[in-house]
Amino acid sequence: MTEIHDHEVDTSEPVLRALLDEQCPAWADAPAHLLHTTGTSNTLWRLATPASEPDVIVRLPRQIGGDRSISAELRLLPALADTSMLEHLELPSVLHAGRPSDAYPMAWMAAAWLDGRDLWSTRDAAATDGRLAHDIAAAVRAIRTIEGMPVDRRRDADRGGAMPGLLDRLAGWLDDPAWAADRLVDRAAIRRRIDEAAEVATEPVAPRFVHGDLIPGNLLVDRSDRLRAIIDWGGAALADPAQDLAPAWSIFDAPARTVFRDALEVDDAAWIRGRTIELEHAVGGVLYYVPRRHPLGDVMATTLDRILADR
């Protein structure tokens, strides 16, 4: 198994089997298939179950502390199931909340498999799909209306927190010699985007509930290429609602981006904030994942190109 990060814990099949033997014996002998996706936080195993049951997806965090998002999602998903979200799309259905054990040191989870293709695997068609732009805009509107969820408020320096802190973090990606940014990104073009963001950085923003990571790997479409599900809710929070404008650049080309923006009636200040949040995400993703030859680096490079070309 190829490691993505330094100092990963063991998430290999023997560890999976030990956890299943101990906590989920009904699945102990199920055939297991390692999934290769654009995700980087967890190792994903698909368990094949009898035809009468959905397959199972097991998520094992790769790094110590990575189970915080698993624990957050386990708290959130039952609350989301009682909201209007299910009128718009499917959500992951938790089958088991895994406990740390001698075989594996963190919380983990098993959920029912959701049929569908992620938007990175269908990226060429998705980029130009105006219907999909409307679908995702409708989902973003629904997310913004949700209240009372068991999530934290985003910290100032994080994506979706106060903009000045995010701009400092973005500057750190560009200026820290350890990242050698000049090798992989156009620093001058990025700084022009930072200058634009500085104009709206101090405007007050009312936080709303956000998913916080609406990148292609977290959105699934059905056979008709309509939005079916949003997965990976471990980063949901109370934050700048502009954070969920990420699909404008992570998924869509310029014409479909306009459809998405118009459907959400986004003003200029929110658009600049959303673009800047995703700019920091993309720059960090390129600098971290491209040298590691992980496909998320390609996702982020595509996103960065669209952000720098956006007018």
The secondary structure category is alpha+beta
Number of helices: 10
Order of helices and strands: HEEEHEEEHHHHEEEEHHHH
Quaternary form: single chain
The N- to C-terminal Cα distance equals 42 Å
Please tell me the overall pLDDT.
Answer: 95
Q: Provide the gyration radius in Å.
A: 19 Å
Global outline: globular
- The percent range for helix content is 25-40%
Explain this structure to me?
By secondary structure, the chain is of the alpha+beta class. It has ten helices and ten strands. The protein has a five-stranded antiparallel β-sheet with strand order 1-2-3-5-4, sandwiched between helices. Strands 6-8-9 form a three-stranded antiparallel β-sheet, covered by helices on one side. Helix 5 (163-175) packs parallel to helix 9 (268-289) and helix 6 (187-198) runs antiparallel to helix 9 (268-289). The longest helix is centred in the C-terminal third of the chain and has 22 residues, at 268-289. It is globular and about 55 Å long. The mean pLDDT is 95.
